[in-house]
User: Fold these one by one.
Assistant:
Number 1:
Amino acid sequence: MARLRALVVAVVALFALGPAQVMGEGAQREGVHVAIACGALGIELEMCAEAASQWARETGNTVQIVNTPNSPGDRFQLFVQLLSSQSSDIDVLQIDVVWAGMLQTHLADLSDMREEADAAMFPALVANNLVDGRFVAVPWFTDAGVLYYRKDMLAKYGFTPPETWQDLTRIAAAIQQAEREAGNGRMWGYVFQGKAYEGLTCNALEWVSSYGGGSFLAPDRTFTADNPRAAASLDEAAGWIGTISPRGVLNYDEEASRGVFQTGNAVFMRNWPYAWALAQAESSPIRGKVGVVALPAGPGGESAATLGGWQLAVSRYSKNPEAAKDLVRYLTSAKEQKRRAIKGSVNPTIMALYDDPDVLAANPFFGTLSSAFKNAVARPARPAGARYNQVSDAIWRASYDVLQGDKTGKAAMEDLEEEIARIAYRARWAETKVGQ
């Protein structure tokens, strides 16, 4: 326990928002202390701190924000270490949509919030957080990959937003060349998340699924990676490296991609909806010059966006579980989700907010996203269960090999299917180990 507490001190910074004076409805007793780990990209941390501070003022409690690593993988490992030691250092945790099953034994049952969630939130998100009959997390905000584009540049050169990946490749190359000939030598056609991490799993799933190539591991645990459409989609993506995308994209995460796009040095960008508010900020060089559309489709396929998003869960080891649950209820309320949508372009999990005039005024493209969230492509977390991290690691490693030029799409997908089969064998999903 002492070692893990030292890890928390070394890896995360704790800062108190201070005691509040007003006792609010739902507070358990005055002076209760709650620590929450929230915020990752853009202004998420700021918005969480604002809302938590308001909750503290209304309830008479104190709240502490735990500033965790930006990398989801690092954050997950930190949570695993803390929860495995039954540490009470963090009461409320912001968890990825794919973590519910992996962490469920350490999470409190939030079934008393289930009825409200069923009535208002996207059913797929609620179902995602039901594990063995327990509602282990409340959907807080959702995500799906979208395509950002420079609408001023497309208009300048007579293009409309791309409907297919082939369209994107052609348009990006044409505008990139024209801009460079005009003196903008730093212009690139397309940036995305090509770094070897979970973000590449999301991008690769979108490419493969848009080609009609499946999702690597089907819901019934059928292995689907090794097919010609999946291979072709990755080969096409590899063709972008060094042509319409800088080689540096192989080290880009969400924020690195946004940095290039927002400084005006890319025509297209794949990212999550959070980047909209930042692109439209008063200090943004591209303010008023950005459009957002669905990601392109593959040949003969359809647009596919990876379902993302984050949930709020309560640690089973919290010393103040009722206050922690009350904070979760406050943060996931319609009022707070609306505020976050308007201020930070954070996609609500409450369906009615996609028809809210104030939300749509701040985020015009939200009106097109509701159906995307209902039909977004899920990562293979449910069939992989506790082995999801291993499956995802295998996916992004195989995809990275193709992007880097070390393997063809066909060879990488053959190897990936064998690796997933080995994971399945070790997890006893399958009876026969590949190669035996």
Note: The first helix runs from residue 2 to 11.
Number 2:
Amino acid sequence: MALTEHLVQWPTMTAAQREEAYSPSSCIGGNYQPFVDAYATQSAAARAEIGPGQEVAYGPQPAQTLDLFLPTLPPGDLAPLVVFIHGGYWQELSKSESSFAAPSWVTNNVAFAALDYTLAPHANLAEIAEECCQAIRHLKTHATELNLDPECMVLTGSSAGAHLAAMVANTVSVKATVLFSGIYDLVPLVGTSINEALQLNETQAQELSVQPQPGFPSSVVCWGENETTEFKAQSQAFAVALQAQGTECQQYEIAGRNHFDVVFELSDLSTPTSQHLISLMNV
């Protein structure tokens, strides 16, 4: 089932309407910089609390690294792992702003990884997605030496990071995904300013949209209350597509959150989303 069948608004929008609908900051007055600052501040505080982590190179390029934060476990024990893939429309942010949730997981005996990737336009979207796949393959291949359980890795991502997490889960076996405010159908981005760095044509946008494949892992698909209708519809449509092909999927809106702060639900293990992640990890 094509995702566009559920997105009943964007095909009839003017270019200006589509630009606004796919600009998440339009719901918060246009300025998302305070949230980026919060990512950076809270990530710096996290590293001050639990240490800088271990930088792991998964490829030869400068951005092909991740920061791995490990709990202290008895010798021989392997830690379950939460991997976070940042958003920023594939053009902004880095692992440096992505470790804000690490202390909550590490202090509860779960490893946490903040993944970096080459940003557009220095890499195209197909290359970015392949980098993320390469990162997870590297973690699985080297899991034992990194003190990780290769059978218990959960991918999380926000916005464009949710798209990348879903792309990875389509091709690399992981335990589960937790997807925040994702964009999965990329066709409506063609013709918007978002596409200036991506340079997608409609065919490429269709090919790089996420159509879940058989075997896609159990998932949580969630979004903030204060989001554009199109972003909400993207998540809802993706959840429907998962359920239609037999994947266990919980979908819900998170009250009081917007596109940019919804990911802070990961920083508190008592939130419903973190509790769902823990339950998926323990299946």
Note: The CA atoms of residues 222 and 252 lie 5 Å apart.
Number 3:
Amino acid sequence: MIDSGRCPWCGTDPLYVAYHDNEWGRPERDPNKLFQLLILESFQAGLSWITILRKRESFRAAFQDFDPETLAKWGEADVTRLLADPGIVRHRGKIEGTLRGAQAFLRIEAAGGFSSFLWSFVGDRPLQPRPARLADVPGQTVESQAMSKALKREGFNFVGPTITYAFMQASGMVNDHLTTCPCHAEVAGLA
């Protein structure tokens, strides 16, 4: 049974509930964790998040814990190896995009910081929209559109405005826990 008031999108799957209760929406500032989350969100394009969540540990192992310095040096042999890994989503474009994204991460990090770059789209403070029901939560916003364009300019792939909005929600840049959810006030307090 769904805990009364909890955001209904997580259903009753224990993995999904734990992700909702302990990770989703909590402000993240660590650049490497933000990179990992952005890449996982990009792999989610066209799939459900629970699919990615169930494969997250396999992704971490396959992509060397998403270390950008390591991934930026990988090439075709690594892409071929990853395409044979049943533990991850085997999509050539997303895998190659991850390697390009690692190179972009390193450029952005050197130029002023990946975390600062991403958080600048929300004025460096989590947005607090206070949705009362799922229908009040948008699929994208002006901020996610701007982030999407900027990430694409930097060399990232699979970062459309819907993906970037999901990333913003997951990384705590926007608190989209429903106001009825016990996590809403807790996450708002972390801002």
Note: Residues 41 and 49 are 8 Å apart (CA to CA).
